[in-house]
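Subject: for your reference before the review

Hello V.,

The reviewers asked for a structural picture of the protein, and I figured it would be easier to keep everything in one thread rather than splitting it across files. Below is the amino acid sequence we used in the manuscript, unchanged from the supplementary table.
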Amino acid sequence: MTFDENRGIGPLAGSTAGVTVDLTGRPDLRQVRAAMIEAMLPGAELDDRFGAVLLVVDELVGNAYRHARSPKLLRIGRTSENVLVEVCDGDAVAGAVRVVALRYGLRLVGQLSSDWGVRTDARGKVVWALVPVKVFPAEM
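And here is what came back from the structure prediction:
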Protein backbone atom coordinates (compact mmCIF):
# COMPACT_ATOMS: atom_id res chain seq x y z
CA MET A 1 0.00 0.00 0.00
CA THR A 2 1.13 3.50 -0.65
CA PHE A 3 -0.15 6.50 1.21
CA ASP A 4 -0.94 9.97 -0.01
CA GLU A 5 -2.37 12.28 2.66
CA ASN A 6 -4.92 13.66 0.22
CA ARG A 7 -6.03 10.36 -1.31
CA GLY A 8 -5.42 7.75 1.40
CA ILE A 9 -4.53 4.12 0.77
CA GLY A 10 -3.64 3.05 -2.74
CA PRO A 11 -2.47 -0.31 -4.12
CA LEU A 12 1.21 -1.15 -4.50
CA ALA A 13 2.52 -4.32 -6.12
CA GLY A 14 3.75 -6.82 -3.52
CA SER A 15 1.98 -5.18 -0.60
CA THR A 16 -0.33 -6.77 1.93
CA ALA A 17 -3.99 -6.38 1.07
CA GLY A 18 -5.82 -3.87 3.19
CA VAL A 19 -8.80 -4.51 5.37
CA THR A 20 -12.03 -2.51 5.58
CA VAL A 21 -14.48 -2.71 8.48
CA ASP A 22 -17.97 -1.22 8.17
CA LEU A 23 -18.62 1.09 11.14
CA THR A 24 -22.14 2.21 10.21
CA GLY A 25 -23.77 -0.10 12.74
CA ARG A 26 -21.21 0.93 15.39
CA PRO A 27 -19.86 -2.57 16.05
CA ASP A 28 -18.26 -3.15 19.43
CA LEU A 29 -14.57 -2.20 19.50
CA ARG A 30 -13.66 -5.79 20.41
CA GLN A 31 -15.32 -6.95 17.19
CA VAL A 32 -13.50 -4.26 15.20
CA ARG A 33 -10.10 -5.31 16.65
CA ALA A 34 -10.82 -9.00 16.04
CA ALA A 35 -11.84 -8.36 12.41
CA MET A 36 -8.72 -6.27 11.84
CA ILE A 37 -6.33 -8.82 13.30
CA GLU A 38 -7.95 -11.79 11.55
CA ALA A 39 -7.86 -10.05 8.18
CA MET A 40 -4.34 -8.63 8.49
CA LEU A 41 -2.68 -11.45 10.42
CA PRO A 42 -4.70 -14.66 10.02
CA GLY A 43 -3.93 -17.23 12.67
CA ALA A 44 -1.60 -14.91 14.63
CA GLU A 45 -1.66 -14.87 18.41
CA LEU A 46 -2.46 -11.49 19.95
CA ASP A 47 0.50 -10.22 21.95
CA ASP A 48 2.39 -7.02 22.72
CA ARG A 49 3.62 -6.65 19.12
CA PHE A 50 0.11 -5.52 18.17
CA GLY A 51 -0.33 -2.98 20.95
CA ALA A 52 0.43 0.27 19.11
CA VAL A 53 -1.87 -0.31 16.16
CA LEU A 54 -4.65 -1.63 18.41
CA LEU A 55 -4.45 1.49 20.56
CA VAL A 56 -4.57 3.71 17.48
CA VAL A 57 -7.55 1.77 16.09
CA ASP A 58 -9.34 2.00 19.46
CA GLU A 59 -8.76 5.72 19.74
CA LEU A 60 -9.70 6.68 16.19
CA VAL A 61 -12.79 4.44 16.04
CA GLY A 62 -13.80 5.47 19.57
CA ASN A 63 -13.51 9.14 18.61
CA ALA A 64 -15.66 8.55 15.53
CA TYR A 65 -18.28 6.85 17.71
CA ARG A 66 -18.23 9.70 20.26
CA HIS A 67 -17.94 12.74 18.02
CA ALA A 68 -19.12 11.93 14.48
CA ARG A 69 -22.75 11.75 13.54
CA SER A 70 -22.15 8.99 11.02
CA PRO A 71 -19.07 6.75 11.37
CA LYS A 72 -18.59 4.89 8.10
CA LEU A 73 -15.41 2.85 7.62
CA LEU A 74 -12.18 1.71 9.18
CA ARG A 75 -9.52 1.00 6.55
CA ILE A 76 -6.13 -0.47 7.33
CA GLY A 77 -3.24 -1.06 4.95
CA ARG A 78 0.27 -2.30 5.57
CA THR A 79 3.65 -2.05 3.88
CA SER A 80 6.90 -3.46 5.18
CA GLU A 81 7.45 -0.18 7.05
CA ASN A 82 4.07 1.14 8.21
CA VAL A 83 0.46 0.38 9.01
CA LEU A 84 -1.98 3.05 7.86
CA VAL A 85 -5.18 3.36 9.88
CA GLU A 86 -7.99 5.46 8.38
CA VAL A 87 -11.37 6.14 9.97
CA CYS A 88 -13.96 7.71 7.68
CA ASP A 89 -17.13 9.47 8.78
CA GLY A 90 -19.81 11.63 7.20
CA ASP A 91 -18.89 14.85 9.03
CA ALA A 92 -16.93 17.30 6.91
CA VAL A 93 -15.60 19.42 9.81
CA ALA A 94 -11.90 18.64 10.13
CA GLY A 95 -10.73 21.60 12.22
CA ALA A 96 -12.23 20.32 15.46
CA VAL A 97 -10.03 17.22 15.35
CA ARG A 98 -6.81 19.25 15.38
CA VAL A 99 -8.16 21.48 18.17
CA VAL A 100 -8.48 18.52 20.55
CA ALA A 101 -5.20 16.96 19.40
CA LEU A 102 -3.36 18.19 22.46
CA ARG A 103 -5.74 16.40 24.80
CA TYR A 104 -6.75 12.87 25.57
CA GLY A 105 -6.26 10.02 23.14
CA LEU A 106 -5.15 11.96 20.08
CA ARG A 107 -1.98 12.83 21.94
CA LEU A 108 -1.41 9.08 22.31
CA VAL A 109 -2.11 8.60 18.58
CA GLY A 110 0.52 11.25 17.86
CA GLN A 111 3.07 9.50 20.08
CA LEU A 112 2.47 6.05 18.57
CA SER A 113 2.38 7.26 14.95
CA SER A 114 5.07 8.62 12.70
CA ASP A 115 2.41 11.01 11.38
CA TRP A 116 -1.33 11.56 11.56
CA GLY A 117 -3.85 13.99 10.17
CA VAL A 118 -7.30 14.79 8.85
CA ARG A 119 -8.52 15.29 5.31
CA THR A 120 -11.96 16.02 3.92
CA ASP A 121 -13.70 15.03 0.73
CA ALA A 122 -17.23 15.14 -0.69
CA ARG A 123 -18.29 12.25 1.59
CA GLY A 124 -16.98 13.65 4.89
CA LYS A 125 -13.65 13.43 6.66
CA VAL A 126 -10.94 10.85 7.19
CA VAL A 127 -8.75 10.80 10.29
CA TRP A 128 -5.60 8.80 9.57
CA ALA A 129 -2.48 7.65 11.39
CA LEU A 130 0.69 6.05 10.06
CA VAL A 131 2.01 3.56 12.65
CA PRO A 132 5.57 2.22 12.21
CA VAL A 133 5.77 -1.55 11.62
CA LYS A 134 8.59 -2.01 14.09
CA VAL A 135 6.01 -3.14 16.63
CA PHE A 136 4.89 -5.91 14.25
CA PRO A 137 6.55 -9.21 13.36
CA ALA A 138 8.67 -9.08 10.20
CA GLU A 139 6.66 -11.83 8.51
CA MET A 140 2.92 -12.21 8.46
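For the response letter, the relevant points are probably these. The longest strand covers residues 124-132. The chain is about 30% helix and 30% strand.

Happy to draft the paragraph if you're swamped.

O.
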